[in-house]
Structure to design on (605 residues):
């Protein structure tokens, strides 16, 4: 045997003798049981009993093991622990002092129940000790569970598979800290499953670099406070209404709950949140959702609507968001909330094949909610727009394709759709260039008007109405059906559809399109409330903007009432059936321009 091994063996033997000598200060098992029960009851304010065997060992360290430990307290609170290991600090033990350095709780179960009105405690709780605070270097929990039963069946909470490693724990006050702090701990932990009532469910919860503190009213403070700092992860989360989230991560700089003796309770959060996917039933889906620099607080105010009690700000990013036929990607915004008013500024997202920017404002603080949008989408695609707002199944190919720009400036207010439509005010604009109209050559169709006046000009000008009014109009008028098979594709060099909306009535401000050879324009109004055409006129123009052919449209969007196709009504007679004839017979004829907007006559510089 080498000298080094001999020294280690001798040192180990001496340490063993010293620890054994220290353990000799412990009383017999019966006295030890009574002493542990008494001190634990006084420290926790609960009635603690040890129903199983008590063991004392000194390898791999000095420890006391307890089996079948229970604790009962006020409010129908109960704790059941299959096994407890109390690890003793060695240095104090050598001085014949017993100091618990670490505690292991194996398969603990915590049961909490809220008393119903008039229901007393099942037994008198033990008096709380007035001794010095309890400090522990380390606490480990394996296989833990928690249940909470509220007054109703739907208010219960269950948690299972709890694993905790606490590196620092102070109970009853922290030396050098505010005297009112009741509990403080640092550590990490996991929870396999969590159920909250009949709606909330979470799996795979993990806490990292966590700090938790609690202050109670009985600590001399005029409030109760619970504060958390650290990281939170959750594999899956489900709530009522079909809301589900996966791979949720939160970095909490401060997550606090404060309940004053008099006043309103308050929850605050500072930090960031990441979420891989978030769904709301089958209506909406968000992917790669992120909140950064969040500073939020919610105040529980009696008699006020909950949405008015949320306030704060933060930066929001979202990789993709889908609702219905609409899809958004690359979303970024600065969000804020105060007194029921929610706003999003500096918004940016990819939408309808283009890049969108602008802002939104939603006021839910008043009896009649108000909504404002000021938004533009540049470089979008016309076919994306038609597909997003089309009825029924999406067509294999939309009838109109090409680059487009969208602009919306809108304000509405109301508690239902009718009120929202009646209060609608603002402007819409959709513009496009170099568009392709599939299965319909407007130039060819218009050129044949002199031989057949059965053609419906509303079909030719339908895409002028589709513009920014699609969300309302497509409830009745399906623009995807306009591209009926009429032969080869046609070209639209320029399209402008600009409308002003006042109290739910949209008036055409600049609505026209130009093909390779012809120009069409629209005048009149669209009633969003009744979904009707009001004195609408679609016209084919000459180079001066006069209506060569025109047709009036009234009635509902579902069943429009079409007037007769008119040709330069100021000059009656069959000689006017051909464009060229008009020019030859009345070279200097004056007319009242039907259109003087931004779309020029084809071929005009």
């Amino acid at each position: 045997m080498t000298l080094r091994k001999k020294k280690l063996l001798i040192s180990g033997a001496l340490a063993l003798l010293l620890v054994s000598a220290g353990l000799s200060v412990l009383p017999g098992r019966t006295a030890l049981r009574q002493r542990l029960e008494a001190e634990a009851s006084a420290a926790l304010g609960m009635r603690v009993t040890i129903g199983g065997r008590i063991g004392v060992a000194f390898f791999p360290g000095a420890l006391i093991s307890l089996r079948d430990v229970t604790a009962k307290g006020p409010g129908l609170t109960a704790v059941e622990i299959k096994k407890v290991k109390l690890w003793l600090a060695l240095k104090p033990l050598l001085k014949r002092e017993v100091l618990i350095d670490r505690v292991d709780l194996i398969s603990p179960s915590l049961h909490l129940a809220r008393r119903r009105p008039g229901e007393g405690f099942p037994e008198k709780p033990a008096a709380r000790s007035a001794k010095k605070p309890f400090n522990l270097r380390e606490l480990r929990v394996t296989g833990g569970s928690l249940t909470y039963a509220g007054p109703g069946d739907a208010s219960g909470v269950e948690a299972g598979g709890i694993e905790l490693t606490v590196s620092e724990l102070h109970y009853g006050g922290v030396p050098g800290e505010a005297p009112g702090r009741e509990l403080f701990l640092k550590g990490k932990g996991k929870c396999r499953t969590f159920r909250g009532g009949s709606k909330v469910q979470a799996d795979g919860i993990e806490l990292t670099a966590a700090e938790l503190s609690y202050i109670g009213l009985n600590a001399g403070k005029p409030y109760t406070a619970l504060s958390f700092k650290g990281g939170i992860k959750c594999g899956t989360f489900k709530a009522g209404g079909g809301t589900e989230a996966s791979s949720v991560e939160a970095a909490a700089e401060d997550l606090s709950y404060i309940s004053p003796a008099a006043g309103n309770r308050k929850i605050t959060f500072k930090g960031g949140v990441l979420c891989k996917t978030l769904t709301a039933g089958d209506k909406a889906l968000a992917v790669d959702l992120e909140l950064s620099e969040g500073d939020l607080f919610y105040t529980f105010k009696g008699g006020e609507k909950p949405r008015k009690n949320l306030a704060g700000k933060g930066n929001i990013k979202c990789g993709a968001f889908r609702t219905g036929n609409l899809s958004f990607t690359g979303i970024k915004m600065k969000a804020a909330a105060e007194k029921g008013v929610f706003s999003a500024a500096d918004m940016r997202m990819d939408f309808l094949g283009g890049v969108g920017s602008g802002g939104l404002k939603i006021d839910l603080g008043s009896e009649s909610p108000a909504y404002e949008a000021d938004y533009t989408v540049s470089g979008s695609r016309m076919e994306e727009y038609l597909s997003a707002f089309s009825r029924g199944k999406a067509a294999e190919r939309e009838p109109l394709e090409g680059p487009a720009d969208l602009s919306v400036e809108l304000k509405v207010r109301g508690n239902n759709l009718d009120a929202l439509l009646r209060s609608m005010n603002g402007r819409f604009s959709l513009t496009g260039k170099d568009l392709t109209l599939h299965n319909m050559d407007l130039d060819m169709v218009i050129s044949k008007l002199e031989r057949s006046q059965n053609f419906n000009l509303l079909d030719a000008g339908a895409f002028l109405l589709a513009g920014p009014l699609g969300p309302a109009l497509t409830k009745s008028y399906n623009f995807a059906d306009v591209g009926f098979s009429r032969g080869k594709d046609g070209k639209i060099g320029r399209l402008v559809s600009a409308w002003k909306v006042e109290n739910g009535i949209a008036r055409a401000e600049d609505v026209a399109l130009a093909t390779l050879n012809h120009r069409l324009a629209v005048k009149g109004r669209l009633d969003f409330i009744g979904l009707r055409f009001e004195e609408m006129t679609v016209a084919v123009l000459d180079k001066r903007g006069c209506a060569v052919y025109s047709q009036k449209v009234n009635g509902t969007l579902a069943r429009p009432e079409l007037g007769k196709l008119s040709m330069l009504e100021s000059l009656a007679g069959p000689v006017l059936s051909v464009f060229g004839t008009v020019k030859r017979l009345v070279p200097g004829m004056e007319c009242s321009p039907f259109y003087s907007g931004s779309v020029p006559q084809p071929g005009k510089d």
